[in-house]
Q: What sequence folds into this?
């Protein structure tokens, strides 16, 4: 039996399987014999406690560790499983992605058509959040980025990235740089991976006919975001710039922070967001880069650690184990 062409990695966190929009979409889509044959599923659970004998109407494998691996750790488990079973592509999914059978068929078609072009490291759809196109995006000067034009289809030659959700990643391209970063285990895991691929000549193919709706917390501070979550993002953003961007770009970021804080003070009822941004601005002015990175790494260790993953138990009929 030939191996599946795509491993879909679904990352769960404290959500009942019956409440997962992604699981519901997969259940409907994988009734199709072709999709069931060519799309394997790994359900990676970052919840504090594992599910006991989880059951779904399609074949899958289930993985869990005692510590939250974040999206980066879950995707690295997917890379290892895909490589072990010779699966060339990995589809990244969280638990509330609006997934359809037509979307999976289109991704399969693109993966087969572009399989021979190793310069293409990823295939991505357009993602709309709260009425706006938020992915894919082009990097611009002065630490800015802008969404790719909605009528664009084809190879994105410029430096850019896409959000993790619904991105199809070439497994061999991810292996070239060792997979996702355990430092950026949650926020900026997508930026890190796409930047690493771009530096190695792997480009993004934009499947312009595909568009999915996906709620991104950063697009809705009033309802989705909470201050603690925003601070985690800001810390990762600051560390990423220090580790992977130029001194000039870091200088520009320092200038942007007070402007961001002023906008947040005016725009949001909860003033804690502006205060958090202002605190990071002061930190950039008063503490050297090495000290800021040390503080960030200590915070990472305090939040969670990443142990070796437990072996993945086989589900009966699991596609990835075929």
A:
């Amino acid at each position: 039996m030939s191996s599946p062409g795509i491993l879909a990695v679904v990352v769960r966190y404290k959500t009942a399987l019956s409440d997962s929009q992604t699981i519901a979409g997969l259940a409907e889509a994988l009734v199709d014999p072709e999709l069931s044959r060519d799309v394997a599923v790994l359900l990676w659970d970052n919840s504090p406690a594992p599910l006991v004998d989880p059951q779904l109407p399609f074949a899958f494998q289930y993985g869990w560790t005692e510590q939250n691996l974040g999206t980066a750790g879950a995707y690295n488990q997917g890379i290892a499983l895909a490589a072990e079973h010779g699966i060339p592509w990995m589809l990244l999914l969280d638990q509330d992605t609006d997934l359809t059978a037509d979307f999976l068929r289109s991704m399969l078609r693109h993966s087969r058509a572009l399989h021979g072009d190793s310069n293409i490291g990823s295939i991505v759809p357009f993602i709309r959040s709260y009425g706006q196109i938020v992915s894919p995006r082009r990097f611009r000067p002065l630490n800015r980025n802008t969404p790719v034009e909605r009528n664009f289809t084809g190879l994105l030659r410029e430096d850019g990235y896409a959000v993790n959700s619904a991105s199809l990643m070439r497994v061999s391209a991810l292996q070239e740089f060792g997979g996702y970063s355990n430092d950026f285990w949650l926020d900026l895991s997508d930026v890190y991976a796409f930047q690493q691929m771009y530096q190695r000549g792997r480009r993004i193919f934009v499947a312009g006919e595909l568009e999915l709706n996906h709620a991104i917390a950063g697009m809705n501070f009033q309802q989705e975001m909470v201050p603690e979550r925003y601070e985690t993002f800001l810390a990762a953003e600051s560390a990423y710039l220090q580790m992977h961007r130029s001194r000039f770009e870091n200088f520009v970021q320092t200038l942007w922070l007070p402007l961001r804080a002023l906008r947040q003070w005016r725009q949001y009822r909860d003033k804690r967001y502006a205060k958090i941004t202002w605190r990071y601005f002061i930190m950039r002015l008063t503490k050297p880069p090495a000290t800021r990175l040390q503080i960030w790494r200590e915070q990472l260790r305090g939040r969670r650690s990443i142990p070796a993953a437990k072996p993945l138990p086989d589900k009966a009929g699991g596609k990835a184990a075929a």
Remarks:
- The chain is about 40% helix and 20% strand.
- The longest strand covers residues 203-213.
- The chain has two domains: 6-216, 221-303.
